[in-house]
Amino acid sequence: MIGPQGSYASGLLGGDATAERERLGGIQDSVDGFTRQTLVGLGLAPDWTCLELGAGAGSVARWLAGYCTAGSVQAVDIDTALLGPADDPRLTVRRADITDASFRPGRFDLVHARFVLCHLPDRDAVLARAVSWLRPGGLLLVTDPYQLPAEDSPFPSVTRLMSAYEAAHVAVGADLTWSRRVPALLARAGLRDIGFAARPGCLGNGPGDRWRPLVDGAAHRMIGSGMVGRADMDAFHADLADPGFVDIPQITLAVWGRLPTP
Ligand SMILES: C[S@@+](CC[C@H](N)C(=O)[O-])C[C@H]1O[C@@H](n2cnc3c(N)ncnc32)[C@H](O)[C@@H]1O
Questions:
Q1: What's this model's pTM, rounded to 2 decimal places?
Q2: Sign of the C-alpha dihedral, residues 31, 33, 43, 111?
Q3: Is 54 in the pocket of ligand 1 (CB under 6 A)?
Q4: Could you give all domains of the chain from N- to C-terminal order, each with its CATH number?
Q5: In this predicted model, what pLDDT tens digit does every residue of 176-209 receive, in sequence order?
Q6: Ligand 1 nearest-atom number relative to CA 52
Q7: Cβ count within 10 A of residue 36
């Protein structure tokens, strides 16, 4: 068996559009509520201008455009295929590489990046530049995973899968534990009012699972690493049907800071 959707392909780890759409849809379904709650709690206001980095399939950008009725949203991605054309006059879709030092999007009340920076080999430099895209008083919100130690899983199968998952990301320059450094990086960059909030990401637990699209998306690399085989993938899919199969391999960490006003 290859998988319920017939594919183990991926996006950032290389793969097809259907798998990437499913992977991004899974991310949005599981984290959009947390992101919205965090932004509203931080005082998101209707007149804010917003920059959404690595906008993906665009759920946050579209929501921001709906919320900021007297503001605007610039949604940036290196691949805008799944972002689609802007369907709101307050939303601008821009194709750009945010690691390019010549990328100068302007200055914003909110700069937001979710599940983007940890994937970039030069993430510290991009984070530092993102601070320069804030207006005085502006808010930078960075949300990234914090991968818990694979060996702590109560399931040996998850220990194997998550070890391979993390290794597959490291192989392409990602760091799934980088989020822990972000509070200190923001403080060192001159931001103040540093804060953070976390949300556990559920593997298994029936309909609560958010991991199947992520594991499937990385599967070809995980298998390619030799750390797991197709039998492990099949066992994972079988385990998902077991109500006793529940774990927390990763925490989503949202970290923010504000640029002081002069
Ligand atoms: C894991 S997805 C997250 C999408 C979205 N932020 C979300 O949370 O739903 C990462 C996104 O970052 C984009 N991306 C990766 N590298 C990028 C770069 N150098 N410049 C701009 N976008 C990039 C990818 O194309 C992808 O859409």
A1: 0.92
A2: positive
A3: yes
A4: 17-258 (3.40.50.150)
A5: 999 999 999 999 999 999 999 999 999 999 999 9
A6: 6
A7: 16
